[in-house]
Structures are given as structure tokens and as C-alpha cells.
Specification:
Blueprint lengths: L3 H16 L12 H14 L1 H4 L14 H4 L4 H10 L13 H15 L11 H9 L9 E2 L2 E2 L9 H4 L2 H9 L10 E7 L4 E9 L3 E5 L5 E5 L3 E6 L9 H4 L2 H12 L7 H7 L2
Antiparallel strand pairs: 1-2, 3-4, 3-7, 4-5, 5-6
Helix pairs in contact: 2-6, 5-6, 7-11
This protein binds heme C (2 copies).
């Protein structure tokens, strides 16, 4: 009896591990190297339909979180592996490890930074924010700081780490193709603010703040205005080195008004 027990135990543990992708987060998720490998795989195998940055094209936009928050990591894995039968999304014959790299990349472009375990020294990032970079002159976090820029107390919950990084390094990137802030007035007087995702001769596709896409026939639109460029300094690329940027992004990624899951559990009474 005693001799058989460890064997049984090992068997019982090994089975579920082998059968299914684990419930725990796969190690690729949030791992910068895996994300980078995933980006390359995406660029060759997926970008043709989903766009280089996942902004959409023949396949749907993978950045618009509102559209598909229902897919968890395993769901995402299975969709990429098996494709979507009947739709134009082909199955993949990549190895599981590579598929997880793709999942990690897709997560990195749509999951809130606070869920991503973004690497970097958050204390150092905090010093940069409140010190040499002067971010606090324009931005508040939890009641402290300047008011001319948006409050960043919840930025980790509302943005991806990539978006935070872009906002700092390339404040005008918002105006890049498929990501322009726009305000629209329709002939019937209704207005709409959002991000211009697509524009052709017949229609505008605008995503509002909730993530919902609006398809507006051009004939319904009286006027639309692309918003002015950002007042943010444009020289952080040279003022901060790579390490400092990572620390700053890590610090901002953790700014969330909602405590992380583990703390919510602990905090329950
Ligand atoms: C031939 C075009 C094409 C290629 C190549 C392609 N996709 Fe898709 N993909 C689609 C279409 C079309 C859909 C929408 C299917 C549907 O109607 O639900 C889709 C759906 C998805 C979804 C689900 C989105 C959602 O809203 O549920 C994910 C995730 C995805 N693709 C990721 C990938 C990845 C990663 C790759 C590369 C390995 C890839 N796709 C390659 C066309 C493509
Ligand atoms: C001169 C004022 C100013 C300074 C200094 C400044 N910002 Fe900004 N920032 C703004 C304004 C205004 C916006 C909103 C317009 C826009 O999107 O660019 C903004 C936008 C942002 C956003 C996007 C917010 C969102 O809700 O999408 C982030 C993130 C950000 N700033 C971070 C920083 C960080 C980090 C620093 C320091 C390295 C910094 N900013 C320095 C004025 C400033």
C-alpha cells in the first residue's frame, strides 16, 4: 500500500496537466520575450487579415476589447488553433508553444495593463513620474498632481501597456492610421465622439468610448473633425532611456482603482 501511494499521487497530478492547457496563466502571458515572438508570428501569419497592429481588416479588430472580452486565454488559444469554422478564419498548425506566444501577443494588445504583470521597477518608475520626467505637472494620480492632462489613477485598468508606452513615446500616435480621435455631427443633429477606425468613400467606422462600433453612411454625416495633436512633450524618447521607460510603464500599469484579484479575495469579509 505504502509503496503504491506516491505512484498514484504522481499519476493523479500528471493527468490533468497533460490533458488541458492549465487554468493558471500560461507563462507566455505578459512575458515580453514571448510577446515579441508572438508579434513576429502574428506579422507573418495573421496580419494579412487582422492588420499589422491587430487593428482589423479582412478579419476583425483584435484591439477592441469591448468586442470580445468573453474570450479567456484558453478560448483565445483554441480559436487560434482551430480557426473559426464557416468563417474566414483558418486553423493553425503551429506548435502549442508558438500558439501561446500568439495568445500572449494578442493579450498584450487588448488586455488592460494591470492584468499583464508588466515587468519593471515600479518604485523607480514612480520617482521618474513624480520627478525628472515632470509628468505630475500635467497629470494627477489619486488626487496629487496637475490638471491639464487626464487623471491617470486608473490608467492601468483602461489601457494596454502598449498604449501607455505609445502615449508617452509617441503622443501623436493616436492620429496614426486607424486611430484618430474624431468628433462627428450628423445631419439629424446627433453627435458622436470616438476613434475613427476606418473611412472609405461611403462610410465612416467609429468606435465610441465603450468600445462599440458605429457604421455611419457618409450621407448621414454633416461634418467630422479630427482632433488636434497632443500637447504632451514629444521628447521623452530621448529624455528617458530604455530602462527608465520600462520602469515608468510598469509603474503606470499598476495604477488601477480596482484592487488586483488576489487582494479582492483577501479583502472580502
Ligand atoms: C484569412 C484571414 C485570416 C487569417 C489569416 C487569420 N484570421 Fe483570425 N479571424 C479572421 C476572421 C474573418 C475572423 C472572424 C470569425 C468570426 O466570424 O467569428 C477571425 C477571428 C479571429 C479571432 C477571434 C476574434 C473574436 O472577436 O472572437 C482571433 C483571436 C483571431 N482571429 C486571431 C488570429 C490569429 C492569431 C491569426 C494568425 C495565426 C489569425 N487570426 C489569422 C480572419 C483571419
Ligand atoms: C504638458 C503637459 C503634459 C506632460 C508634461 C505630460 N503629459 Fe501626458 N498627457 C497630457 C495631455 C493633455 C494628454 C491628453 C491628450 C493626449 O491624448 O495626448 C496626455 C495624455 C497622456 C496619456 C494617455 C491618457 C489616456 O487616458 O489615454 C498618458 C498615459 C500620459 N499622458 C502619460 C504621461 C507621462 C507618463 C508623462 C511623463 C513622462 C506625461 N504624460 C507628461 C499632458 C501632459
Amino acid at each position: 500500500m505504502l509503496r503504491i501511494r506516491p505512484l498514484l499521487l504522481a499519476f493523479a497530478i500528471a493527468l490533468p496537466l497533460a490533458a488541458q492547457p492549465d487554468k493558471k496563466k500560461n507563462q507566455a502571458i505578459g512575458n515580453p520575450e514571448a510577446i515579441e515572438s508572438g508579434r513576429k508570428l502574428f506579422s507573418t501569419g495573421c496580419a494579412g487579415c487582422h492588420g499589422q497592429a491587430g487593428q482589423g481588416g479582412r478579419g476583425p479588430n483584435l484591439k477592441g476589447r469591448g468586442m470580445w472580452h468573453s474570450l479567456d486565454d484558453d478560448g483565445l488559444f483554441n480559436t487560434i488553433k482551430k480557426g473559426v469554422p464557416g468563417a474566414d478564419m483558418p486553423p493553425s498548425n503551429l506548435a502549442d508553444g508558438e500558439l501561446w506566444q500568439l495568445v500572449a501577443f494578442v493579450r498584450s494588445i487588448n488586455a488592460p495593463a494591470v492584468e499583464q504583470n508588466v515587468p519593471g521597477n515600479t518604485d523607480a518608475g514612480s520617482s521618474i513620474f513624480w520627478g525628472k520626467a515632470g509628468c505630475h505637472n500635467c497629470h494627477q494620480i489619486r488626487g496629487r498632481g496637475g490638471l491639464s492632462g487626464p487623471d491617470l489613477s486608473n490608467i492601468g485598468a483602461t489601457s494596454t501597456a502598449g498604449d501607455i508606452r505609445d502615449a508617452i513615446l509617441d503622443p501623436d500616435a493616436d492620429w496614426a492610421e486607424n486611430y484618430r480621435k474624431v468628433s462627428i455631427v450628423r445631419h439629424d443633429g446627433r453627435t458622436l465622439e470616438g476613434i475613427l477606425r476606418n473611412r472609405d468613400n461611403y462610410s465612416l467606422q467609429v468606435q465610441d468610448a465603450t468600445g462599440k462600433l458605429h457604421l455611419l453612411p457618409i450621407n448621414d454625416v454633416k461634418e467630422y473633425t479630427l482632433k488636434r495633436p497632443s500637447p504632451m512633450p514629444k521628447d521623452y524618447k530621448t529624455r528617458l532611456d530604455g530602462r527608465e521607460m520600462s520602469d515608468l510603464v510598469a509603474f503606470l500599469s499598476r495604477q488601477s482603482m480596482r484592487p488586483p484579484e488576489s487582494e479582492t479575495e483577501k479583502g472580502k469579509d
